[in-house]
Amino acid sequence: MQLGLSVSDSDVSSFTPLVVLELADDTKAEAITWLLNRIRDKQQNGAQDDQKPNPNVFVVGSTLQRLLNGAEDVGLFKEFQDGTMRGFTYANRESFKDFNGDGEGFLSDAECQYIIKHELDTLRAKNEEHVPGYPKLKLYPGKSVVRRLQSKGVLIQYFPLHNKEDLKRLSFSWYKKFKLSLQPLDDIRHYFGEGLALYFGFLEYFTFALVPMALIGIPYYLFDWEDYDKYVLFAVFNLVWSTVFLEVWKRCSATLAYGWGTLSRKKAFEEPRAGFHGALGFNPVTGREEPVYPSSKRQLRIYLVSVPFVLLCLYLSFYVMMVYFDMEFWAINIYNENPDIATSILLFVPSIIYAVVIEIMNLLYRFAAEFLTDWENHRLESSFQNHLVLKVLVFNFVNCFASLFYIAFVMQDMVLLRQSLATLLITSQILNQVMEAFLPYWLQRRRNKKVHKRMRRLMGDKELPLLGQVQLETEMNTYLGTFDDYLEQFLLFGYVSLFSCVYPLAAVLVVLNNITEVYSDAFKMCHVFKRPFSEPAMNIGVWQLAFETMSIIAVVTNCALIGLSPQVKAYFPESDTQLILIVVAIEHVLLAFKFILAFVIPDVPKHIQVNLAKLEFDSLEALKKRVSTHLYIESHWGPMFLLWTQTVGIFQRS
Amino acid sequence: MQLGLSVSDSDVSSFTPLVVLELADDTKAEAITWLLNRIRDKQQNGAQDDQKPNPNVFVVGSTLQRLLNGAEDVGLFKEFQDGTMRGFTYANRESFKDFNGDGEGFLSDAECQYIIKHELDTLRAKNEEHVPGYPKLKLYPGKSVVRRLQSKGVLIQYFPLHNKEDLKRLSFSWYKKFKLSLQPLDDIRHYFGEGLALYFGFLEYFTFALVPMALIGIPYYLFDWEDYDKYVLFAVFNLVWSTVFLEVWKRCSATLAYGWGTLSRKKAFEEPRAGFHGALGFNPVTGREEPVYPSSKRQLRIYLVSVPFVLLCLYLSFYVMMVYFDMEFWAINIYNENPDIATSILLFVPSIIYAVVIEIMNLLYRFAAEFLTDWENHRLESSFQNHLVLKVLVFNFVNCFASLFYIAFVMQDMVLLRQSLATLLITSQILNQVMEAFLPYWLQRRRNKKVHKRMRRLMGDKELPLLGQVQLETEMNTYLGTFDDYLEQFLLFGYVSLFSCVYPLAAVLVVLNNITEVYSDAFKMCHVFKRPFSEPAMNIGVWQLAFETMSIIAVVTNCALIGLSPQVKAYFPESDTQLILIVVAIEHVLLAFKFILAFVIPDVPKHIQVNLAKLEFDSLEALKKRVSTHLYIESHWGPMFLLWTQTVGIFQRS
Fold it and tell me: Fewest CB within 10 A of the end CB: N or C in chain A?
């Protein structure tokens, strides 16, 4: 690895390092020169420059002018003078609220890094046949260069740099002061982007929403209220809570997203995923040239490969469940033959083993699902995410809850259900906290020490803060997105909403878990992982639907559990029929009520609806005007796109 | 009534009469002059003109130029050169597909009339304190002048004129040729507008969709297949059918509406209803001045008056139902005491009387609901319609089906259910056809003869085709919108989907009814009623939701009916419990399947989605451009609105 810094193409004094590119150690010099030239100027491709030695880590920055133009291109929404959120345009920059002077500080770090990422991702091959120096690394027009280099191991990674000062300020206000307060969501958003801020917002909201249920659950558990009259009340409360909870969250999320300017961003204009490949064609919507892949082929891959694979995994999961029940019976037999302390502890062993196996299976399946979904070649990141989430959710739901459903409705053994639920919940919480935060943190500390030692050996005591930082962060783990965090919350929501009427302490456990989760997640974002690229999310996406589906399943499950309870059965000694009919009727009424409630509560608060309608109105009025100056704009449109990709500054170690 | 024609403000040769305004016979001359001046030029208000005598029927036409500008203002979408649908703008008129020369024939009659209606409806009082000549008829700024005059009986009505030639052509291709063919939906749309064309499209689609069910139903009925195995098949087919039917209709409707340019029209920019009143304020979306009414007041009116009223009516309906059952038992008792032909006919009498009473109650309730909804003072026509439909649907559903549900699930008497269903269905069909078409037609013919006689007496044999036509049409009945027609289809859909597994012939009866319905509706539109104003509908609106709700209720009902049937019960001789559990499980699976199906089938066909996304993309790009020329447009926008309301030609009988 070669060290040292040289600056090219940029005024050093004004340079802010934003994104790091790491290439493989043995990358050919001509490939590097080619790539750097392409990044410097997408238009003027292929000019080679052999005089520099072979560095492998680059820091990319950009001029302000170019970032502002980039903000327009990615369709960033910022606050306008009149308080509404509008798409930023360079021409109209003076009319935006926080734009002063040349626009210094107008874009947050996260936004700048997002713009540069977008730039890099859309760097596409044109008429090069292969990567210079690598005759086997074929390119064809429209192929994403960065992704190609990445998939072939030439480009190892690219990631945004932390900003030490901002990070210190953020981590202080986020988790270092030990007084109860809300999370600084706006600061999180500024530093990590909207996607992550929405996750933390949801985590906080979910935890607060669970507090009343936890408060009710504690006396139920402590005083061992086996009175199922009260359980019915608890279940009904549970149902209304889960509906209102999700509906109100939609409104909160819309308010947050509007304030962050992501609510109005349109899905249809998403650039294709960096990994999306296909023959070069024309996007029917924008009319621009980009890869096209027939959706019939994708459907074939989904139905002929992915679906059978998921079914196979589900079968496997059921098989493991049956093994667990065998173990359970075996343990109970041993206990019955010789009941002492040792064997009573043995009773919990099968559940704990099963919980660990479930976690391992979930993990393995997760990788397989990601591979398959990538292979399905979805055009948009959102569509990729939807298919991945669907695959993972179906499996995780079955894997985690199948045994509980089996115990509840086939074996009808409420004692075992309670014990099994408690063991699964507690084991998976402990495992999660360890795997998610403590293990990576421990690994990271070991790595940090090694890096420091090596740096000191190489450079003596010279102060090279940027170089050291880049070196440290390059070796940090990569944060794989909010997916796993949401998944964990989804499963916790499942435990609470499906079976909490049998084990009311579940809500308490989840609240405790989530309070530590906020701190450990905050800590891992700030110090364990590389800074992630910001992701402009307008809501929690497919997870909203997932939580809603869970809450519908919860209605059915809770009603069935109530119907099964011996105390309720005692009210109808002569006939089961009447009991079942009443339970079914109540269930239908609850479901109908749920749908009506979801229908009546508007998803977006009134004042935001008005602002959105205003934007749309202006946009249509503008279209009317524009069509009249149609030809004029058409002829000036092309060159406009060519102007702004010219001045990304590049720092280069040599 | 004074007769004779005089032409003012317009070049006679190019004048096409479009809309008729009828004022009360004794209207004060100064009020007429004032109104005419206001219509001629909204801007130059109040110039009085006393020299003319007092006519009471006016024909309004317009210059082409002004209609084209009006088309832009109402946001008409027309086909662009590239085949997409775009908002029409006068400045860009040459780029639209069928625009030739000065634009003659570019707008259909129905569109022109719609534009003039919009003009008249938005004629608002400014600084006049009262209508000239009527000191008690107070006006305040923002109040719709036309609606004010109408509610006080000064303006009796205004309606679009028929176009004799087009009507002859349309009625020939629609219902006069006696060969099987699809309805000429595009012609209907051109003549009557999108709302009505969508209704006829839906009617046709619904009828075709029922044909398979009718074909299956006939052998069931003829061979008296009491085999409930097959009934279960029939019920399952029914359920899948009702879901697919509604989903596919959404796509058809989107295709039709896109082709007609109504799919992209935005709801938020609807002008307030002509009847909407409130203090003058600013619309937060458009920033224009218009009446504002606090929604809290509206909520109070809804919850404190409307809801209790509806509940009272429901109670009344149940009461009537109980009286019907008393009558039914009384008839059965008489038959049992003395079974002969007379008493066996008597068996049907209670059902027939009840069916008639139901129709009468529906009719009365309809008027009350309309009055209440009007009083709730909704800002948008669409919101008014939604509340009206909700009120009427809840009552009609209960009123029509309560007795059937009672017979099916409380009395569990399938023979009575079948008899009652058949009687209700047939009686209501006959009553509907008579009330809807034959009665108005008969009244109309009598009226026509009278008018002809009077005209001949007044004018001798002079040919005055326009005058005669206006006179005739003024006295025709007014078509009150598609509401009642949809309601009828909704109830028929209910009979078919809820109980057809008990009475499979229902589908056959509905198909037969709908075939005659197409002809009688077509006939009544062309010859019985005044031409209605066109209504730019993008779908069947709240009716889609109503039909979907009905199809969900149908799943529950059908499953319950299957569970109740003695043949199915025979499979589970030892325990009802198992049967009920299986039925409930099947019901849940069906409902889940239904929701997944509704979720998986996209509402709008792919190619139309692409076109819509394209329009939106262009519109956002245009907005970006526009914001940069913001100030320029702002300063030219005001006068633009003022320009185009100046040249409506007015014909006036004097």
Answer: N
Same-domain pairing of B364 and B258: no
Q: Which residue of chain A has the CA closest to B549? A: A592
* Yes or no, beta carbons of B619 and A622 under 8 Å apart: yes
Gap from A614 CA to chain B (nearest CA, Å)? 4
- Substitution target in A608, A627, A637, A641 with the highest count of B β-carbons within 10 Å is A627
Residues B398 and B518 in one domain: yes
**pLDDT level of residue B623 (50, 70, 90 thresholds):** low
For residue A87, give the nearest of B95, B287, B623 by CB distance: B623
- Domain membership of residue B622 (yes or no) is no
Task: Please provide the DSSP assignment of A469-531 as one string.
Answer: HHHHHHTSBPP--THHHHHHHHHHHHHHHHHTTT-THHHHHHHHHHHHHHHHHHHIIIIIBPP
The verdict on B348 and B471 lying in the same domain is: no
Per-residue model confidence (pLDDT) at position A51: 36
The residue of chain B nearest to residue A599, with distances taken between CA atoms, is B545
A73-126 pLDDT, tens digit each = 787 888 888 777 888 888 888 888 888 877 788 888 888 888 888 888 777 777
B91 DSSP 8-state letter: T
| Domain shared by A244 and A390, yes or no | yes
Domain region containing B65? 16-161
| A630 contacts B92? CB cut-off 8 A | yes
Q: How many domains does chain A have?
A: 3
DSSP states along A521-578: HHHIIIIIBPPPPP---SS-THHHHHHHHHHHHHHHHHHHHHHH-HHHHTT-SS-HHH
A168-222 pLDDT, tens digit each: 888 888 877 665 667 888 888 889 988 899 999 999 999 999 998 888 888 877 7
Do B393 and B488 belong together in one domain?
yes
User: Do residue A284 and residue B610 have CB atoms under 8 angstroms apart?
Assistant: yes
Best B303, B593, B620, B629 residue to mutate vs chain A (most A CBs within 10 Å): B620
pLDDT of B43 reads: 33
Could you give phi then psi for residue A559, rounded to 5 degrees? -60, -45
Residue B100 has pLDDT above 90, yes or no: no
In terms of domains, do A219 and A326 share one?
A: no
**B581 shares contact with chain A (CB less than 8 Å):** yes
When pLDDT is averaged across residues A413-422 and rounded to a whole number, the result is: 86
In a domain, A1, yes or no: no
Q: Which of A268, A588, A617 lies at the smallest CB-CB distance from B285?
A: A617
Specify the pLDDT at position A274. Answer: 65
Nearest of B111, B122, B113, B38 to residue B75 by alpha carbon: B111
Residues counted in chain A: 654
Task: Please give the ipTM for the structure prediction.
Answer: 0.77
Same domain, A304 and A246: no
Q: Answer yes or no: is pLDDT of B584 > 80.
A: yes
Tell me which of B285, B574, B576 to substitute to probe the interface with A (most A C-beta atoms closer than 10 Å): B285
Task: Say whether both A351 and A394 belong to one domain.
Answer: no
